[in-house]
Amino acid sequence: MALKDKLLVFLANSPDTLYSGEMLAARFQVTRAAVWKAVRQLQDEGFEIGVSGGKGYSFSGRNDFLQDTLIHEYAGNASFPLHVLDTVDSTNNEARRMVLNGAADGTYIAANSQTAGRGRSGKSFYSPANTGLYVSYIMRTGESVEQLQKLTMAAAVAVCRALRECTDCDPKIKWVNDIYLGRRKVAGILTEAITDFETMRTDAVIIGIGINCRTREFPEELQEIAGSLNDPALSRNKLAGRLYTHLVKCIAERNDPEILEAYREASFLPGRKISFLHNNKTLQGTAVSVNDRGGLQIVLDTGEEMTVSSGEVSILSWDQ
Ligand code: BTN
Predict the structure, then answer these.
(1) pLDDT in the model for residue 173
(2) CA–CA separation, 305 vs 289, rounded Å?
(3) What pTM does this model have?
């Protein structure tokens, strides 16, 4: 790793902290002039690094733009194909284009903003610049379409673990793919399969995740539902890197009972009054639990029991 990258990783770990040139030179076993040169290179790349004459250097907490060196570092220096984009239509669209061009298993795409971010059921996903994290993970797999639910659930567990690691928050899952903080949705997951029409086999699965990190203003239609992490100390690079690590692990373990258990533990629907659409009719009931195949078990107000395997559920009452 070049000195400037080592310095970046070190300084970014503790923003707004002053380190003397002498200390940095000793740490990286280079001269103070080499440290100064590396700082200048980072400043030329756009990083805000304060230089206080004689005292040292401090990395501004405002430097939270996505950077491949930092994402790799936070992902434990694992080697994987990573594409960091300033803006893109949708990271899932980009992932699809990459799959068609032969992208490898484990390819990760992270964007600072999306112009046409997509959510489930044809909805859009609000993706403004600098305040959110929008990523897609490519899995080359012949997974059957029925298995996609398990992948979404594994991804939800990975998002919760990454959020717990990078913030003080306690995220919860709203079956099947929404992540909530309190009563607000802060993240969503869109899992899509690419199928080869000749063989009718799945060629790849794309897991897209959008997290509102510090988005404060939402379009009117989202104002009652959407929220944001709003942790001033949060580093989007750290979140992107840790999320990658957790995704790889949770995906590998998606058939283990621990993942289902972790999903159930974080799920907040069980015990709550809900409504949902079934065969064009709105039904009401109480969510009971998530079954082994990822379906939501519900007791309808009529006393009838049923299990839904997909679809959108609305919360009628937050009280349990
Ligand atoms: C949902 O809440 O319905 C799912 C939202 C998924 C949004 C993410 S952002 C990264 C990836 N690219 C997209 O266009 N969508 C997903």
Answers:
(1) 98
(2) 12
(3) 0.90
